[in-house]
Design goal:
Number of strands: 20
Shape: globular
Oligomer: single chain
Order of helices and strands: HHEEEEHEEEHEHEHHEHEHHEEEEEEEEE
Number of helices: 10
Number of domains: 2
Strand content: 25-35%
Largest sheet: 9 strands, mixed
CATH architecture of the largest domain: 3-Layer(aba) Sandwich
Helix content: 10-25%
Strand order of the largest sheet: 1-2-3-5-4-8-9-10-11
């Protein structure tokens, strides 16, 4: 799969998603030159059955020490019952009668990851990771096997399902499976139903972006890589062009996260890499400007794309701790701007900001191919302000603030 597409496809596909660019957050102006036409109505999910506790069935295989393997009932597909394979776990020695919890959404080519559940169990959380492509993990990491009660094929197959009933298309079924997993984990007696967050990686980040506008019971959402505006710029431009104008518009109307993100009101943490092959910085920025709730950005230079890297960011744990256990929150960017060719940002932070840097690129063209440079930024602790001169060659730049937990918080990137 290639991220390259000709200017012709970029131009007409941009038109397909311009209508999905909702209004930027009221407390922050959109970047210069960005337009924000009204968003189109999203597919309406029938939430009543998704808020009912699904039937649960034991799973004989696979078994992982310390975790529970199970199936829960998903939506019917082609008049047949479906079941969703799931790993569920809790801390070995819980310190609370009612546990905070996390719903874990895997990416393309992935499945339910036992080690991801274990990571959050070690942090003191109940955790649930479900499979969204009708598979169960088999043998070594990265090997999956389809089971007999699977729903529609996923990921890129969704582009070919537009003639199917909406409720039988993969995105509808996958989002519904995530909401059902949330309903299920909330029902467990050891879980505090008011302290549940969701995070997803790649296609899981794409789904998390949609879920954030569909299921307002989540206390926070943390999409990693995944975002909307896929018809504007993404690795899927060739697939959309292959569909043709009308079918591409139909897919984007239904399943681009940009039509759901304006409805997201919970705190959101957006994590990405500067050169991500699938979800480039321009589409990512347009996406994070849409939700109306608090947002935090964490943009790493050349962050690898994949499950291990996407599951690891410490910022997700810190956000959860701040919301669920009165932990010290991530630094918050209060304002940002340019004065006398100096980029600056003011911030609030419960933990010391120990380092700051200006990230910039002199390149134009494909975001995935740009070379990024780093330069130190000055920290004025008294004024809670960081600043750095902007090199004359910089075409795009932003600031990163790093606290004493090594957590990264970023400003919006600026193009000039």
């Amino acid at each position: 799969m290639t991220a390259r597409a000709g200017n012709r496809s970029l131009s007409w596909l941009l038109l397909l998603t311009l209508a999905a660019q909702g209004t930027a957050q009221a407390d922050e102006a959109a970047p210069p030159g960005q337009t924000n036409p009204a968003s189109r109505p999203a597919v309406q999910f029938d939430l009543a059955p998704l808020h009912k506790i699904p039937d649960v069935y034991p799973a004989d295989e696979p078994q992982v020490a310390g975790l529970r393997s199970l199936y829960y009932r998903g939506l019917d597909y082609r008049e047949h019952e479906t079941r969703v394979f799931t790993f569920y776990g809790t801390p070995a020695n819980p310190t609370e009668k009612k546990l905070p919890a996390i719903v874990l959404v895997h990416g393309g080519g992935g499945s339910a990851f036992a080690e991801w559940v274990q990571l959050w169990n070690a942090r003191g959380y109940a955790a649930i990771a479900m499979d969204l492509c009708g598979c169960v993990p088999i043998g070594t990491h990265g090997h999956w096997q389809h089971h007999d009660l699977a729903g529609p094929p996923g990921w890129d197959a969704s582009f070919e399902q537009l003639a199917d009933p909406i409720h039988e298309q993969w995105t509808y079924q996958a989002v519904s499976a995530v909401v059902l997993a949330h309903t299920l984990i909330r029902s467990f007696p050891e879980v505090d139903a008011e302290r549940v967050g969701v995070t997803g990686v790649s296609w899981g980040g794409y789904l998390t972006s949609i879920v954030s506008g569909v299921d307002d019971r989540f206390r926070f959402a943390a999409p990693v890589y995944g975002c909307g505006f896929l018809g504007d710029n993404s690795v899927w431009l060739p697939q959309l062009e292959k569909l043709g104008r009308e079918q591409a518009r139909l897919w984007l109307d239904r399943w681009d996260p940009s039509v759901y993100l304006p409805g997201a009101k919970m705190p959101m943490l957006w994590i990405n890499g500067t050169n991500d092959f699938a979800y480039p910085m321009d589409s990512w920025q347009k996406s994070y400007l849409l939700p109306t709730g608090p947002r935090t950005l964490s943009l790493r230079v050349r962050m690898p794309h994949g499950a291990p890297a996407g599951q690891a960011p410490e910022e997700i744990r810190v956000l959860a701790e701040s919301l669920f256990r009165h932990g010290k929150p991530l630094p918050r960017i209060v304002d940002q701007g340019i004065t006398d060719n100096t980029a600056w940002a003011t911030f609030e932070s419960a933990e010391p900001v120990v380092r700051a840097e200006l990230l910039y690129t002199a390149d134009t063209g494909k975001w995935q191919e740009r070379k990024w440079e780093q330069a130190p930024a000055e920290i004025d602790q008294a004024a809670t302000r960081v600043s750095a001169p902007i090199p004359a060659s910089a075409k795009v730049f932003y600031l990163n603030l790093i606290d004493d937990r090594d957590c990264i918080v970023s400003t919006r990137h600026v193009e000039r």
